[in-house]
Amino acid sequence: MIILRSVLFNIVFYANLILQMVVMTPFYFIVPRKTSWFVPKNWARSNNWLFEKMVGTTFEIEGLENLPEGGYIFAPKHQSFWDVYALLPWLSDPFYILKRELTWIPLFGWYVRKQRMVPVNRAARGKAMAAVMERTRLEMATGRQLIIYPEGTRRPPGAPPEYKYGIARLYRDLGVPVVPVVMHPGLFWPRRKFLRFPGHFRVRILPAIAPGDDPDHFHQTLMTTMEAASDALLVETIRANPHLPLPPTAAQRYRELTGDTSRG
């Protein structure tokens, strides 16, 4: 049943993407930029609904009161494609720093450019990177939320942390709060796999880290805070979903944290 539900969900998920991009494109490009956020946010809401109805996976968000007013860096754990889009409805005007090649994709690239995402040439140095930072400052000054994954790429649940220093540089240079976010969607939507698992999980938004700290101290604080909260949430999620098959990293970390060898 899980295999069948997963296959059907994946088909409908991508059909939903294509359908909404085609049907909503005229509206998206006619209305003002901020109004056009309705389209990707509606797509995100519909995907969350499909995930619940077709797979049986639900989630709740804790700590919305921790989101500051104005501009800030939104720094979530990154485990799955789910966390790329699912939280967009709760952010007023987010943006990404992304590979410039993504802006070359027909239609998708047009969507990205309208929302003033900041493209970056990863091989660039010097003036090019300075221009990226200046663009980022300008967007942040308008009260937007920069989404940055502190570990840079998707990591399986329970994997040892690999926090990049880039977020500390952004924290120093932008002078805005950083909001850490922990969650374990990778237990239900594993990276590089087509299976989707039913259950329930929490997204936990932690208190913002105020600007002005030493970047090295900030980086250590961010990592310590997020990993402690992530470990606690991992234990909660596994215990709340006893049916869930665990990836090796999650099973090992759960045993380390609890001494319970019955899972995995």
TrEMBL record:
Transmembrane segments: 7-31
Metabolic or biological pathway, per its Swiss-Prot or TrEMBL entry: Lipid metabolism
A Pfam entry, by short name: Acyltransferase
Source species, domain of life: Bacteria
Keywords assigned: Acyltransferase, Membrane, Transferase, Transmembrane, Transmembrane helix
Alphabetized GO MF terms: 1-acylglycerol-3-phosphate O-acyltransferase activity
Domain Phospholipid/glycerol acyltransferase: 72-186
EC numbers on record: 2.3.1.51
Enzyme class: transferase
PANTHER family xrefs: 1-ACYL-SN-GLYCEROL-3-PHOSPHATE ACYLTRANSFERASE (PTHR10434)
Name of the protein in its database record: 1-acyl-sn-glycerol-3-phosphate acyltransferase
Lineage of source species: Bacteria, Pseudomonadati, Pseudomonadota, Alphaproteobacteria, Hyphomicrobiales
